[in-house]
């Protein structure tokens, strides 16, 4: 199970967050600060998984962007690690065409891929289809 | 600055470009969000951020409430509000506007509205109700994009109570020509299943249709539902095993369209999900497992591409192979696979390999032996996670021979670790290992000292408690006990001579207790007293610790020891502001002067003698009878008072009836009695407010008063029955030199090249000490070590008897009454074979039909020769028990039923279900319904030739309170016999099915510890009892209850008596009480165990039954509705 997903910049500022289990606002910010402390200081050759309390963090870095996901202990960390890459490939495919980066659209794509902490779609063209349709609707 | 430049800049720091692309020339039309993000990025302090966001929120607030804001602008505002909330600043004013935007917007605006709702609100937020209409409208829209959006939000969150409103529409979408709509509809149903399983009960066949959908995406979506359902009830879906296998075969074989590939691996996440499902289906089930072997083999073979995702699949595959019924050929391949992982240079793979190994060593400890050198390397790995996972692995392969090395490694980690969570976890594990496998006294005490100093005040309180209990109860030989205690005293004295200020409070308390109790074993009590007195003077010592210290001094003060020290302490603390300390100091003063009294109150070295406590408070009998004679009301326990209060409230509306007698009684007692007895009377009257301030003046504490007095007044106290102490052969201590020799010899086991450089050799030495005892059993025996593997610190089986300190700690738990029935039954079943004829005949009749696991058959046959039901009543139960499906289990049931504790005679137990099985032990369970609780009985059958002691069963449940009835959780199972544990279950939180999860850990002689996990499920209906009320009472209760649910159910028949018939079915199946039937309406009542009522109102309406359930307990109506539905469907 995926508990949450965060996208951070190099300074550790949150750029996108999605929680799949209810959590109070104040606890979210504390958690994010902790996560930043855990992940951003790690070296390249260290494991991409970090133990945090009773669950694990899986993180991946793309230039200045960090994506961190909290997963329960029974989750297959490596599959989540690759899921992040799949997600980034989706973002890459979409945003290279439109050249306008918006949080709402990223959320829309993420909602297509992960729901209730589960992987619901990984087929890139199917992930992109609903957003593409929305864009078309706006144009036409 | 020109407009163009400004716009360019604002677009820059938006999401993905972040800060690194500040030179590029991307363009955004109107990105106020970009402005905001850039503003925040530039800030340097948290305070500035707060100011900026507050300003932003004020401006958003102004604009959202303006009537002129267009939906397009609203969308922009929502995104900014989302951003603010994401940073931790609440924007609750915008919630309602998010809902409005979802309702009024079109296209992306609508989508952002839905998105904002799903980010802002949680499932139980009341505003969510306002979304229902919008969802309803969008589901009916002709625009597919809108349907999609509505389905997406529904599968993220939806108010549970409103599901019936949209369910038909969602179901309809399952037949939609577009795959995306069908897929999203399946995901929405998955959400419904999660939050209200009873609502989708009737569409299980539609799930099957989705599983068989021609589109792989729709099929994949249905896997989530199946994974969930199969986890809850694997038995119900065994018939689907071959379908899942076929699907996996097709996926692995590349039959899916190309766009499902990820880096040319076909649908990897789908494969992983399927493997997880197969693992559950094949667990403990040979026939299902056999269907899977081929596809698992193929999965292993196909995964040849060198990519992370193939390794992720392989990991899942290996886990599956080790979970299902084993096949040696596959196990070999899987083991090789794990080897590749562990040896990999890529650290992520190494981690996954260790994780797999940790999972696998429980089944096959020898596998750790194969990779010992790698494991050693991982122990010194720079990455904490790898180290941590390695320690976890080592923890699982610990035995008496390698314990000191492994514990040393764990302590090493603990000393540098800074994370609290890890410390608590690891400290607990070290304590567990130390207690189980300690090689000698010195090691044990020293290890525990490290545990206490490192674990400090963070660790679980049961660690020190159980340590003290162990010390005070002692072991098998008096001499050994003395040595252990003396060593503890000596080492603590030297600790106190060092720097006691650095020790955690918990540790100081342990030290004080041990010194107080056992210092008499050494000379120089004066020195000990002085050390203790020094503790009192330290600033850092907490007042709780001080009272432990004073207590210890009181125990030591006799015989003229340290008179001056004691006088000084008494002077200082005799006038302390802390009442507890003052009390202790007074005690110290009195007892130090009166040796005779001290010897009576605190007998030296009497840790083992039970304290005689007059728990019935018989010395108060005179007082009570006097009070009763003077007209006081008899004592009622609080729950009874509350019950009566609730009843008076519900039943009569007369203003003066309310709880008057209770307050009267308390007053009358208070008025008549002398002040010294006030605290007693306040204990009796419980909640009378006018007493509390007077009661506070006395310090007399009387715990346990409430338990003595029952409904009838005075209850006689049952004497705890002492369990028979079984004699154990004292395990000889292995001297260090002997152990060293063993390590050397075991060294020859490791496959090592002869000439190795120095560091290599060190590692190999470490390896030989770490992995000793893991090789096959015979080699251990050859080395003559088998006896040393028995647990050293084996507790004597004792009743609830312990030293003063131990009783201090357990005094607040209710006195347990060990069930003697267990012993009776556990012993007498061997020598009777009255019913073997019956068993044989039933075996014959069922043998043709037998299709159950072979293992179960084996048990049956063994039991036939070894045991048979002893008591006639059990035969009756076994014979009378309906057997709708004749299978070999019924025979086993009959055997096991004879072990049910005697108190259950007359109750009809459920079928006995196997929980889990391995080579030596079988765990089975059944439950019995009693008036106010449900009893769970776990049978542990030992099929091996050796006795197994120290079986520790731990049961837990999310929905239930589980309490052990038979005194201790530790059991012993003799060879070929059955041990019985009994638990009492009550409902904490209603749920359709409730589940008890358990973990059994035990150890066969000469083997590493083993553990088994299992779960036992039972329907909520087991906890339902009829509630007998009159129609008037029913009416009054109905209005008081706040949680309700309504649904239409199908009638059982169409005839004139259809209502009565249907209610009759419910009454029989669910144990309800039909209060009255009037015309086309009926009222029914039941309760969940003792005091959680649920009322049902039914009305015939257009050929179906409208049912309305109400209860003061949340979720209870929903769950009961589910069972009503099931009961009527099954009929």
Description:
The complex is a heterodimer of chains A (140) and B (1131). Chain A is α+β, with helices and mostly antiparallel strands. Chain A contains 4 helices and 7 strands. In chain A, strands 2-1-5-4-3 form a 5-stranded antiparallel β-sheet, with helices on both faces. In chain A, strands 6-7 form a two-stranded antiparallel sheet. In chain A, a hairpin with a 5-residue loop joins strand 1 and strand 2. The radius of gyration of chain A is 15 Å and the shape is globular. The model of chain A has no long low-confidence stretch (mean pLDDT 89). Chain B is of the alpha+beta class. In chain B, the strands form 5 sheets. In chain B, strands 14, 15, 16, 17, 18 and 19 form a 6-stranded antiparallel β-sheet that branches. Chain B has a 5-stranded antiparallel β-sheet with strand order 5-6-7-11-9, covered by helices on one side. In chain B, a hairpin with a 3-residue loop joins strand 17 and strand 18 (1092-1101). In chain B, helix 3 runs antiparallel to helix 4 (71-86), helix 21 packs antiparallel against helix 22 and helix 36 runs antiparallel to helix 37 (689-695). The N and C termini of chain B lie far apart (79 Å). Residues 1-29, 651-754, 776-790 and 796-888 of chain B have low confidence and may be disordered. The interface between A and B is large, with 66 and 84 residues. Chain B: Residues 804-819 have a biased composition (Polar residues). Chain B: One of its GO terms (cellular component) is AP-4 adaptor complex.
Topology (SSEs and partners):
The complex is a heterodimer of chains A (140) and B (1131).
Chain A: E1 2-8, E2 14-19, H1 25-39, E3 49-52, E4 55-62, E5 65-71, H2 77-98, H3 103-113, E6 114-115, E7 118-119, H4 124-139
Antiparallel strand pairs in A: 1-2, 1-5, 3-4, 4-5, 6-7
Helix pairs in contact in A: 2-4, 3-4
Chain B: H1 3-11, H2 32-42, H3 46-65, H4 71-86, H5 95-104, H6 107-120, H7 132-139, H8 144-154, H9 163-173, H10 179-195, H11 204-211, H12 216-232, H13 241-252, E1 261-262, E2 265-266, H14 268-282, H15 286-302, H16 308-323, H17 328-343, H18 347-360, H19 366-370, H20 372-379, H21 384-396, H22 403-416, H23 420-437, H24 441-455, H25 462-473, H26 478-497, H27 505-518, H28 525-537, H29 543-556, H30 563-573, H31 579-593, H32 595-601, H33 621-629, H34 638-651, H35 660-672, H36 678-685, H37 689-695, H38 705-708, E3 709-710, E4 713-714, H39 736-747, H40 758-770, H41 777-782, H42 804-810, H43 820-828, H44 836-847, H45 854-866, H46 872-880, H47 889-897, E5 913-917, E6 921-929, E7 934-942, E8 948-956, E9 960-964, E10 970-973, E11 978-987, E12 993-1003, E13 1009-1019, E14 1024-1026, H48 1031-1040, E15 1043-1050, H49 1058-1070, E16 1073-1078, E17 1081-1088, E18 1092-1101, E19 1104-1111, H50 1116-1130
Antiparallel strand pairs in B: 1-2, 3-4, 5-6, 6-7, 7-11, 8-10, 8-12, 9-11, 12-13, 14-17, 15-19, 16-17, 17-18, 18-19
Subcellular location (chain A): Endomembrane system
Keywords (chain A): Membrane, Protein transport, Transport
Family (chain A): Belongs to the adaptor complexes small subunit family.
């Amino acid at each position: 199970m995926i508990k949450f997903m965060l996208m951070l910049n190099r300074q550790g500022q949150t750029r996108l967050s999605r929680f799949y289990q209810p959590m109070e606002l104040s606890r979210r910010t504390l958690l994010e600060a902790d996560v930043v402390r855990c992940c951003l200081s790690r070296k390249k050759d260290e494991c991409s998984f970090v133990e945090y309390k009773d669950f694990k963090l899986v993180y991946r870095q793309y230039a200045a962007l960090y994506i961190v996901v909290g997963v329960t202990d029974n989750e297959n960390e490596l599959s989540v690690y690759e899921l992040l890459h799949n997600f980034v490939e989706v973002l890459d495919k979409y945003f290279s065409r439109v050249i306008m980066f918006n949080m709402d659209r990223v959320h829309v794509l993420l909602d297509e891929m992960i729901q209730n902490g589960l992987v619901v779609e990984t087929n890139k063209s199917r992930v992109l289809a609903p957003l593409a349709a929305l864009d078309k609707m706006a144009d036409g | 600055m020109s407009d163009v430049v400004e716009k360019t800049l604002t677009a820059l720091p938006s999401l993905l470009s972040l800060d690194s692309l500040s030179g590029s020339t991307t363009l955004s039309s109107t990105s106020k969000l970009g402005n905001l993000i850039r503003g925040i990025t530039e800030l340097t302090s948290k305070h500035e951020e707060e100011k900026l966001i507050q300003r932003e929120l004020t401006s958003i607030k102004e604009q959202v409430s303006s009537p002129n804001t267009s939906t397009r602008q609203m969308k922009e505002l929502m995104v900014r509000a989302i951003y603010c909330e994401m940073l931790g600043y609440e924007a609750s004013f915008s919630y309602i506007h998010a809902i409005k935007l979802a309702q009024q917007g079109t296209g992306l605006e609508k989508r952002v509205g839905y998105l904002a709702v799903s980010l802002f609100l949680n499932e139980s937020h009341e505003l969510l109700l306002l979304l229902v209409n919008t969802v309803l409208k969008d589901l009916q829209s002709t625009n597919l994009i809108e349907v999609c959006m509505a389905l997406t939000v529904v599968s993220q969150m939806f108010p549970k109570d409103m599901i019936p409103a949209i369910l038909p529409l969602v179901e309809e979408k399952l037949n939609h020509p577009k795959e995306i709509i069908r897929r999203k509809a399946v995901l929405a149903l998955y959400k419904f299943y999660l939050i209200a399983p009873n609502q989708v009960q009737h569409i299980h066949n539609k799930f099957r249709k989705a599983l068989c959908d021609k589109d792989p995406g729709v099929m994949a979506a249905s896997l989530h539902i199946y994974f969930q359902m199969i986890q809850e009830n694997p038995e119900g879906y065994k018939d689907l095993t071959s379908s899942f296998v076929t699907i996996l075969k097709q996926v692995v074989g590349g039959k899916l369209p190309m766009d499902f590939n990820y880096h040319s691996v076909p649908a990897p996440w789908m494969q992983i999900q399927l493997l997880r499902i197969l693992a559950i289906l094949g667990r403990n089930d040979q026939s299902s497992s056999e269907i899977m072997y081929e596809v698992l083999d193929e999965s292993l073979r196909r995964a040849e591409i060198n990519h992370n995702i193939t390794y992720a699949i392989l990991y899942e595959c290996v886990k599956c192979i080790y979970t299902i019924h084993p096949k040696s050929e596959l196990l070999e391949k899987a083991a090789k696979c794990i080897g590749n992982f562990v040896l990999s240079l890529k650290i992520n793979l190494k981690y996954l390999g260790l994780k797999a190994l940790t999972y696998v060593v429980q089944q096959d400890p020898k596998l750790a032996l194969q990779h010992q050198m790698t494991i050693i390397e991982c122990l010194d790995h720079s990455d904490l996670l790898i180290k941590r996972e390695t320690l976890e692995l080592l923890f699982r392969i610990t035995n008496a021979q390698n314990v000191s090395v492994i514990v040393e490694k764990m302590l090493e980690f603990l000393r540098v670790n800074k994370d609290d969570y890890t410390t608590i976890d690891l400290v607990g594990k070290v304590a567990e290992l130390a207690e189980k496998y300690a090689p000698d006294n010195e090691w044990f005490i020293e290890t525990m000292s490290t545990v206490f100093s490192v674990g400090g005040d963070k660790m679980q309180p049961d660690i020190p408690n159980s340590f003290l209990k162990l010390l005070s109860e002692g072991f098998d030989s008096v001499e050994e006990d003395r040595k252990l205690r003396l060593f503890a005293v000596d080492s603590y004295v030297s600790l106190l001579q060092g720097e006691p200020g650095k020790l955690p409070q918990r540790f100081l308390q342990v030290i004080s207790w041990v010194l107080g109790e056992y210092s008499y074993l050494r000379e120089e009590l004066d020195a000990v007293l002085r050390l203790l007195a020094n503790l009192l003077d330290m600033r850092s010592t907490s007042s709780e610790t001080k009272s432990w210290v004073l207590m210890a001094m009181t125990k030591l003060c006799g015989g003229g020891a340290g008179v001056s020290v004691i006088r000084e302490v008494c002077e200082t603390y005799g006038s302390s502001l802390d009442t507890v300390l003052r009390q202790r100091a007074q005690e110290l003063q009195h007892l130090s002067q009166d040796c005779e009294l001290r010897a009576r109150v605190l007998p030296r070295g009497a840790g083992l003698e039970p304290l005689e406590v007059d728990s019935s408070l018989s010395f108060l009998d005179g007082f009570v009878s006097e009070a009763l004679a003077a007209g006081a009301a008899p004592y009622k326990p609080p729950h009874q008072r509350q019950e009566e209060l609730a009843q008076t409230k519900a039943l009569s509306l007369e203003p003066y009836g309310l709880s008057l007698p209770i307050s009267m009684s308390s007053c009358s007692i208070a008025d008549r009695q002398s002040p010294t007895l006030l605290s007693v009377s306040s204990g009796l009257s419980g909640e009378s407010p006018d007493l509390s301030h007077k009661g506070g003046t006395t310090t007399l504490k009387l715990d346990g008063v409430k338990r003595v007095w029952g409904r009838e007044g005075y209850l006689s106290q049952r004497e705890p029955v002492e369990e028979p102490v079984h004699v154990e052969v004292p395990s000889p201590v292995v001297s260090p030199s002997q152990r060293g020799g063993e390590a050397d010899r075991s060294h020859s086991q490791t496959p090592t090249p002869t000439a190795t450089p120095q560091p290599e050799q060190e590692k190999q030495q470490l390896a030989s000490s770490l992995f000793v005892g893991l090789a096959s059993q015979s080699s251990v025996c050859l080395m003559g070590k088998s006896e040393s593997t028995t647990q050293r610190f084996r507790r004597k089986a004792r009743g609830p008897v312990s030293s003063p300190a131990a009783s201090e700690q357990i005094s607040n738990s209710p006195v347990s009454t060990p069930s003697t029935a267990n012993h009776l039954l556990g012993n007498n079943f061997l020598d009777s074979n009255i019913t073997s004829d019956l068993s044989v005949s039933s075996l014959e009749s069922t043998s043709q039909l037998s299709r159950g696991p072979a293992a179960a058959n084996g048990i049956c046959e063994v039991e036939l020769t070894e045991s048979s039901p002893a008591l006639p009543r059990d035969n009756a139960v076994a014979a009378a028990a309906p057997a709708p499906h004749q299978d070999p289990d019924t025979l086993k049931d009959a055997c096991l039923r004879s072990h049910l504790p005697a108190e259950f005679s007359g109750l009809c137990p459920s079928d006995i279900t196997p929980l889990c099985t391995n080579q030596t032990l079988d765990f089975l369970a059944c439950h019995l319904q009693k008036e106010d609780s449900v009893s769970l009985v776990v049978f542990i059958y030992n099929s091996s030739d050796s006795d197994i002691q120290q079986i520790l069963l731990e049961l837990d449940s999310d929905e239930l309170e589980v309490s052990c009835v038979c005194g201790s959780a530790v059991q012993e199972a003799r060879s070929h016999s059955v041990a019985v544990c009994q638990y009492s279950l009550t409902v904490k939180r209603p749920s359709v099915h409730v589940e008890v999860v358990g973990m059994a850990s035990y150890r066969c002689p000469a083997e590493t510890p083993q553990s088994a996990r299992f779960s036992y499920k039972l329907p909520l209906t087991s906890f339902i009892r009829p509630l007998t009320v009159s129609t008037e009472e029913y009416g009054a209760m109905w209005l008081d209850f706040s949680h309700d649910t309504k649904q239409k159910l199908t009638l059982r028949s169409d005839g004139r008596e259809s209502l009565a018939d249907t209610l009759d079915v419910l009454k029989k199946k669910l144990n309800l009480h039909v209060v009255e039937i009037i015309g086309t309406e009926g009222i029914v009542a039941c309760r969940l165990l003792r005091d959680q009522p649920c009322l049902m109102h039914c009305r015939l309406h257009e050929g179906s039954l409208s049912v309305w359930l109400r209860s003061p307990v949340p979720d209870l109506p929903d769950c009961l509705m589910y069972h009503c539905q099931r009961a009527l469907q099954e009929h």
